[in-house]
Design a protein that fits this description.
The protein is mostly beta strands. It folds into 2 domains: 12-135, Jelly Rolls (Sandwich); 138-234, Jelly Rolls (Sandwich). It is 0% helix and 57% strand. The strands form 3 sheets. Strands 1, 13, 14, 15, 16, 17, 18, 19 and 20 form a 9-stranded mixed β-sheet that branches. Strands 2-3-4-11-6-9-12 form a 7-stranded antiparallel β-sheet, with no helix packed on it. Strand 7 and strand 8 (83-87) form a beta hairpin. The chain is globular, with a radius of gyration of 17 Å.
Length: 238
């Protein structure tokens, strides 16, 4: 098994006034040749957007874009006619395919919104754009894994992605441990601690720390304190 640690304070950071963003991988003005992604996982941005502010209409093409609100709500609109508000407990996927324009704004005029913007390279390019959004019962992830994203042709739950990728989330009580089994042989696993403290492969990860793992069939992780964890399994060969 091979592993790489990504500490919270090693991420890139950009302060745009209305937007504070931490970049796990190279993005915009943050560039690190050693951090260009993990297999098909290309972008993990931890964004905080001021009230009523947001990203104006802009294009995407041939990218799978996932938004996961952690606090507050986002207002989405795209050129395919989709308009929605995405809240904590929901996951949104926009498969950009041949091309789509969209905007994202904080839906509140009083509180900031904090969300993860994640980009995954697609399995097939130049397909028709597609939108998926689902709400998940957070009680169903208490001390167990809840799949929130899976491939289009998979029987797993979650929004459907144009890639052999699987995302799951768990709210883990201190002292509890879970086993994760790789769904597609050869995939790698990126474990991102959203809150709390977790032990993985002899490493202690705290809030916003992460670890990438490759050459594995599965892994055990344990909460050292109450924790919220996002697990992202992705192909390594893209």
């Amino acid at each position: 098994m091979q592993k790489t640690i990504y500490t919270a304070n090693s991420r890139g950071f950009a302060d745009h006034g209305w937007l504070n963003s931490h970049h796990t991988f190279s993005f915009a003005n943050y560039y690190d040749p050693e951090r260009m992604g993990f297999g098909a996982l290309r972008v993990i941005n931890d964004d905080k957007v001021a009230p009523s502010r947001g990203f104006g209409t802009h294009p995407h093409q041939n990218m799978e874009i996932i938004s996961i609100p952690l606090k507050g709500a986002l207002r989405h609109k795209d050129s395919e006619g989709n308009e929605a508000v995405i809240e904590n407990g929901e996951v949104q996927l926009m498969s950009a395919g041949t091309g789509v324009f969209h905007s994202e704004y904080n839906n509140s005029n009083q509180e900031e919104v904090n969300f993860l913007q994640i980009w995954v390279l697609p399995k097939r390019e130049n397909i028709a754009p597609r939108y998926d959004q689902q709400r998940f019962d957070v009680e169903d992830r208490k001390d167990k894994l809840q799949f929130v994203l899976s491939p289009i042709d998979s029987d797993h739950t979650g929004v459907k992605i144009n890639q052999d990728a699987f995302f799951s989330m768990t709210d883990l009580t201190a002292g509890k441990s879970l086993d994760y089994e790789i769904q597609n042989k050869g995939n790698g696993l990126y474990i991102f601690v959203l809150e709390g403290e977790v032990a993985v492969e002899g490493e202690t990860l705290k809030t916003r720390d992460a670890i990438s793992l490759s050459d594995l069939s599965g892994v055990n992780f344990k909460a050292l304190a109450d924790a919220k964890v996002l697990l992202m399994e992705v192909p390594l060969e893209v």
